[in-house]
Amino acid sequence: MKYKRLVLPIGLMAVVLFAAYGPYHNHDTAEAKGMSNKWNQLEQKLGGSTKTAVFAGGCFWSEEAPFEKLDGVVSVITGYTGGHTTDPTYEKVSTGTTGHLEAVQVQYDPSRNSYNQLLQVFWRNTDPTDAQGQFADRGNEYRSVIFYEGKEQQSAAEASKTALAAQGIFDEPLVTKILPATVFYQAEDVHQDFYRTHPSDFKYNDVGSGREAFLARVWGDDQVVKALESPYSRINKDEVLKSLTKLQFAVTQQDQDEPPFQNEYWNNTEEGIFVDIVSGEPLFSSKDQFDAGTGWASFTRPLEPGSVVYREVGGFFSDETQVRSRYANSFLGHVFEDGPEPTGLRYCTNSASLRFIPKADLIERGYGAYAAQFSNE
């Protein structure tokens, strides 16, 4: 049996499988059925300018975390790619017969982070000399591969591999392949954000597989390429949470929705922006707010494409797309595809997750960059 598959306790897996895929919930994630990645759909509607990078470096649990910590990274999705079958699942890929590799799909803003920086993160989190797998995870599905989209990424990947070899960090030849990108299938929900949802199991896997010790020995203090740069990542979250009301804590930290029509901003008509109640990171603008008739504050788009992250969640009867703040990871609400033009989206949010900054206070409160959008009002 694969090493990684020993990590999740049997009892936990039974609960997850029953809740997510049992007889009352017969709807797999759209991505596992070969459909487009949800973020790609949202990105097209929002008219954003993010780019995609795909990397395979062994266990996708461990590959996901380093990229998600980078400023400018909008989303990181774990999944399967490079195979010769359709609709791969974890069980099928684990047999080693589908040709797929466990991989991560990184959506990033090139104005805030470069593809070369993503490559540097990739090299510092894999063993590029191992052609048979990665660390304790053995087999085709765990090989290290850079999947490029277009000549620009191909050239950058090949140049970075050549430069790494010239540094003489590794005694063995670098065997990581650089291949054209193919269809990417999102993995099952339990494998998304695993380092957040199962921190103990994630740590056990990283240490027990030998990955952590290897990377520390090879790279030392040079393992971290680029830390989070946003000031909103530097908050003392534990201290801030103590100042929240009971409702604000329940919404932001426990994913609870507040009552409709009984919250602060559902019928807001004042001009300004909405920021995260925990971190202060900018999230939405009143210019994009509309009355959806639901009793919650609704918006057609986030203030900036990278200001929110999306998480697919499922229950017995439905699948939903959660919206969360990037740095504080506060639960904000959900996004639906029944909104008005120009995006056709409806970001249904909880007022308890937000703090409103009136347009007259933007400069004084440190949000002067957004004042111009209200200057002609």
TrEMBL record:
**Database matches in NCBIfam families:** msrA, peptide-methionine (R)-S-oxide reductase MsrB
> In which organism is this protein found?
Paenibacillus albus
Catalytic residues per the record? 59
Q: Does the keyword Signal apply?
A: yes
Q: Which family does it belong to?
A: Belongs to the MsrA Met sulfoxide reductase family.
Q: What does this protein do?
A: Has an important function as a repair enzyme for proteins that have been inactivated by oxidation. Catalyzes the reversible oxidation-reduction of methionine sulfoxide in proteins to methionine.
Query: Which UniProt keywords are present, listed alphabetically?
Result: Multifunctional enzyme, Oxidoreductase, Signal
Q: Which InterPro entries match?
A: Met_Sox_Rdtase_MsrA_dom, Met_Sox_Rdtase_MsrA_sf, Met_Sox_Rdtase_MsrB_dom, Mss4-like_sf
What HAMAP family does the record point to?
MsrA
Q: Which Pfam families match?
A: PMSR, SelR
Q: Please name the GO terms that the record assigns under molecular function.
A: L-methionine:thioredoxin-disulfide S-oxidoreductase activity; peptide-methionine (R)-S-oxide reductase activity; peptide-methionine (S)-S-oxide reductase activity
Listed SUPFAM superfamilies: Mss4-like (SSF51316), Peptide methionine sulfoxide reductase (SSF55068)
Name this protein carries in UniProt: Peptide methionine sulfoxide reductase MsrA
Q: Which Gene3D superfamilies match?
A: Peptide methionine sulfoxide reductase, Peptide methionine sulphoxide reductase MsrA
The organism sits in which domain of life?
Bacteria
Cite the EC number. 1.8.4.11
Give the MsrB domain ranges. Answer: 237-359
> Which reaction is the catalytic activity of this chain?
L-methionyl-[protein] + [thioredoxin]-disulfide + H2O = L-methionyl-(R)-S-oxide-[protein] + [thioredoxin]-dithiol; L-methionyl-[protein] + [thioredoxin]-disulfide + H2O = L-methionyl-(S)-S-oxide-[protein] + [thioredoxin]-dithiol; [thioredoxin]-disulfide + L-methionine + H2O = L-methionine (S)-S-oxide + [thioredoxin]-dithiol
Name the enzyme group at the top EC level.
oxidoreductase
Which residues constitute the signal peptide according to the record? 1-19
